[in-house]
Amino acid sequence: MVHTPDTARGSIGESRRPRARPLAWHLVLLCLVLGVPILTLAAALAYRYVSTERARLEAIGLQTARNVASVLHLELTELTDMAKVLARSAAVVSGDPNRIADRAQEVRQIGVALMVYDRNGHPLPGAYQSADETSDLVPDQALLQATRPVVSD
């Protein structure tokens, strides 16, 4: 009998079986088949959550900025209106420094920092709280040259 590669391992009718893959290979494949869809779903859900949360935080930030702007606008409008009313008051129009100082004191009690200057740029007596407050404040030259009461920042 002649031995050929097909008959060397067994009987003539037996075919050669492919080598079986190791168990570890099958376990890795099972983990991939089960794990990849789960990880893909988790990544999609995380992306959706982060997008929704970012949009929510942006909306909260925008609303907060609008609220702050509105409050600041109201406060600045109140201060400007108050200064305009004070500038047009009878005390300022008459030029009586004592009445002006009294009106300035009333405004300061509300919590508004107010300085009143004469035409020469000097603070009116009693129209400020202390010498420290007036040491570095100098009125603008345009304010000094104005012919009527002016409100400045």
Write a brief structural summary.
With 153 residues, this protein is mainly α. 60% of the residues lie in helices and 0% in strands.
Notes on the structure:
- With 153 residues, the chain is mostly helical.
- It contains five helices and no strands.
- The chain has helices spanning 23-87, 90-94, 97-110, 131-134, 141-144.
- The radius of gyration is 43 Å and the shape is rod-shaped.
- The protein starts with 22 loop residues before the first helix and ends in a 9-residue tail after the last helix.
- The model has no long low-confidence stretch (mean pLDDT 76).
List the keywords:
single chain; 60% helix; mainly alpha; 5 helices; 153 residues
H/E topology pattern? HHHHH
**Counting H and I runs of at least 4 residues, what is the number of helices?**
5
Beta-strand portion reads under 5%
Q: Mind describing the biggest β-sheet?
A: none
Number of E strands: 0
Helical fraction: 55-70%
Gap between N and C termini: 117 Å
- Structural class of the secondary elements? mainly alpha
**Overall morphology:** rod-shaped
Rg, please? 43 Å
Name the poorly predicted regions: none
Average pLDDT, rounded to a whole number, is 76
Secondary structure: elements and pairs:
Elements: H1 23-87, H2 90-94, H3 97-110, H4 131-134, H5 141-144
